[in-house]
Design goal:
DNA-binding; elongated; 12 helices; HTH-type_LysR_regulators; LysR family transcriptional regulator; Arc Repressor Mutant, subunit A; transcription regulation; 10-stranded mixed β-sheet; single chain; D-Maltodextrin-Binding Protein, domain 2; alpha/beta; 43% helix
Length: 304
């Protein structure tokens, strides 16, 4: 009688054994394990060969455990439970079970970028809470990171070398035209823009982006309103009070009737995610950054 080589028994074989036993079918077990049916069949056949016993009766009505298969299944489940317990202990030590990830951001990020990343993160780490704080400006976001009130911050790039940063996206500034506008163009000229009352953001850094940009205009421009809230700006355009210049992400979703067009000269803001450089961060922080990366939002790491 040949001695069983215990080093040859694999967890994948035990997983296949339990899955086939539960589903009583190789194809359904394969679907459950996200493996091919041939891989599951090979795992069971290899395990039977290593153990020198038949684990399943195979027939037209599926697969059923033999008596020895039933007894071995009990031990296989105990082994798998122990493996899961080992993984859980490691996750607890690494901070991936429980705890909180604190994020400071501005509204357009909270609306358009974070929901997908948080959903992905909660699928992987359901016991870690995500706390979001919305801020008016990137200055307060970076202050929150410095003070330890936030772990991750969304800000404008480039930033200072205090932070390790990654680019998320480049957001174009656009012109919003009211429904009663006679203009129907994909790109507005300085001359056309000069004939309209303009609505811009009063908040930094958006305000600081727009004013120097408008100073290069070929015609004098009429800044009629400076407003703090993005939603108020869009609403004012909808009521025909003027044309707005604002980032596309901040303007969306556009109400019916409002038209958009490109500026005479392109203007962009670069949005990035930041953490304090040279600081200790929990594994949960890096796990959330990975979730954000896996949503397709990460563009690249930015050197500062």
């Amino acid at each position: 009688m040949n001695e069983i080589n215990k080093s040859q028994i694999k967890l994948s074989q035990l997983l296949a054994l339990v899955a086939v036993a539960e589903h009583r079918n190789f194809s359904e077990a394969a679907l459950h394990l996200e493996m091919s049916q041939s891989a599951v069949s090979h795992a069971i056949a290899s395990l039977e060969e290593q153990l020198g016993v038949v684990l399943f009766y195979r027939g037209r009505h599926g697969a059923h455990l033999t008596p020895v298969g039933e007894r071995i299944k009990v031990h296989a489940r105990e082994i798998l439970r122990s493996v899961y317990a080992i993984e859980k202990e490691a996750d607890l030590e690494k901070g991936l079970q429980g705890g909180v990830v604190r994020i400071a951001c501005f509204r357009s990020v909270a609306t358009h970028i974070l929901p997908t990343a948080i959903a992905k993160f909660h699928t992987l780490f359901p016991d870690i809470n995500v706390k979001i704080t919305e801020n008016d400006s990137f200055f307060s976001i970076e202050d929150s990171l410095r003070a330890g009130f936030a772990d991750i911050g969304f800000t404008y790039l480039p930033s200072s070398d205090e932070f390790e940063t990654w680019e998320i996206l480049r957001d174009d500034y656009i012109v919003l035209l009211p429904p009663n506008s006679n203009l129907d163009t994909k790109e507005i000229s300085w001359q056309q823009l000069a004939k309209l009352p303009l609505i811009i953001s009063a908040l930094t850094p958006c305000h600081d982006y727009i004013l120097p940009y408008l100073n290069q205009a070929e015609y004098p421009l009429n800044i009629a309103y400076e407003i703090r809230e993005d939603s108020t700006i869009v609403s004012m355009v909808g009521k025909g009070l003027g044309a707005a210049i604002m980032p596309r992400l901040a303007a969306e979703p556009l109400p019916l009737g409002i038209k958009e067009c490109n500026l005479p000269v392109p203007l962009q803001r670069i949005i990035g995610v930041a953490i304090l450089a040279n600081a200790l961060h929990s594994p949960a922080i890096y796990a959330f950054l990975d979730a954000l990366r896996n949503t397709g939002n990460f563009a690249k790491k930015v050197a500062v």
